[in-house]
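A.,

Following up on our hallway conversation. Structure tokens first:
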């Protein structure tokens, strides 16, 4: 029978192997699992999913706690489970065509959240507030902004979402805005009736 020490060593080695095979970046791995039985992984730098054929962010073995930036472009990813809880700068999820939900989205993003070319129908899973901006582009099945952060500290960019017919359920307070080329043309009066914009000139406008 394996001792607990042997089991933990094998599990940690498995985490390190998964990170090496699938990611670019430098990582710190917790010495023991947390209360959910998962190792905790953090990074002070940029984390990039290099294996574009990956089907999972963490293989169910660990969770990312925090990193500087996180970039994911993998068409087979189906869930954000295990994604970093805190991203100090940019979080980008792009061209993950099998991703249909933002559940598991980071709790905190310090600079910019990029959400592009996904098959999501709404934004459920995002936090109530983003310190930086949100760039929401070219998501072909997006029909609602439900789940969108209400407070966006930077520019709210929303364009190329061809099935999006309204901004209801979207942000209520942003620093700047750039909204264009969605399912319909949104007028300035319509946008400002829903969203408080601190600096209308900060961004491309309406």
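Then the amino acids I'd put at each of the 206 positions:
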């Amino acid at each position: 029978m394996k001792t607990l020490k042997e089991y933990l060593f094998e599990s940690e080695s498995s985490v390190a192997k998964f990170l090496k095979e699938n990611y670019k970046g430098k990582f710190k791995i917790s010495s023991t699992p947390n209360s959910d039985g998962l190792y905790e992984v953090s990074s002070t730098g940029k984390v990039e999913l290099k294996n574009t054929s990956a089907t999972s962010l963490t293989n169910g073995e660990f969770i990312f706690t925090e990193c500087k930036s996180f970039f994911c472009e993998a068409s087979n990813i189906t869930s954000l489970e295990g994604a970093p809880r805190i991203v100090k700068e940019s979080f980008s999820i792009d061209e993950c065509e099998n991703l249909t939900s933002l559940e598991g989205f980071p709790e905190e993003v310090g600079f910019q959240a990029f959400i592009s070319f996904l098959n999501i129908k709404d934004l459920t899973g995002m936090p109530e507030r983003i310190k930086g901006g949100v760039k929401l582009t070219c998501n072909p099945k997006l029909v609602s902004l439900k789940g969108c952060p209400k407070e966006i500290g930077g520019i709210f960019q929303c364009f190329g979402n061809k099935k999006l017919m309204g901004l209801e359920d979207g942000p209520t307070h942003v620093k700047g805005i750039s909204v264009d080329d969605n399912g319909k043309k949104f007028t300035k009066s319509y946008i400002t009736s829903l969203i408080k914009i601190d600096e209308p000139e900060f961004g491309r406008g309406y």
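The CA atoms of residues 14 and 130 lie 33 Å apart. Curious whether your intuition agrees with the design.

B.
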